[in-house]
Amino acid sequence: MKVLMTAAALTALVSVSNAHAVEFVAADDSHATELCMAFASDRPHIMLEAMRGQHTAKVRITNKLECNDMNLSEFAHMYSLTRTAKFMKIDIETETSIKDIAQTESTLPVVLSGSK
User: Fold this and answer.
1) What pTM was computed for the model?
2) How many Å apart are CA 86 and CA 73, to the nearest integer?
3) DSSP category for residue 111
4) Within a 10 A sphere around the Cβ of 11, how many other Cβ atoms?
5) Does residue 33 contact residue 26 with C-beta atoms inside 8 Å?
């Protein structure tokens, strides 16, 4: 019985955590947008593959790339992209902010565009 209760609680927890997931949609097929989509995946291996495809260095991407008119640090912080931020050596843990917890999250897809 305990195993069944634990499994049910774990399933409920996973479904609640995925309820606030954001779906990103590419605005165009530019190289910058491709890199932003890879960064937004929050999967370091996808980001590495995109960087190799673009023949671009981590440092250059971190310093120059903007996603939806935000630098990568702001973008990672806004959407909680901790895994790719860590991979790109972007520190998002030391930033202080105030979040409106009463604000409802939108389930509409976010159109993502890279820097021009």
Assistant:
1) 0.68
2) 10
3) E
4) 10
5) yes
Q: DSSP character for 24?
A: E
Determine the Cα–Cα distance for residues 32 and 116; give it in Å rounded to an integer: 8
5: number of Cβ within 10 Å: 9
Cβ contacts of 73 within 8 Å, gap of 6 or more: 85, 90, 91, 92, 95
DSSP 26-73: ESS--HHHHHHHHHHTT-HHHHHHHHHHHT--HHHHHHH-EETTEEHH
Per-residue model confidence as pLDDT tens digits over 44-103: 999 999 999 888 889 999 999 999 999 999 999 999 999 999 999 998 877 566 666 666
Q: How far apart are CA 4 and CA 76, in angstroms?
A: 37
**Tokens representing 54?**
């673009």
Residue 13: helix, strand or coil by DSSP? helix
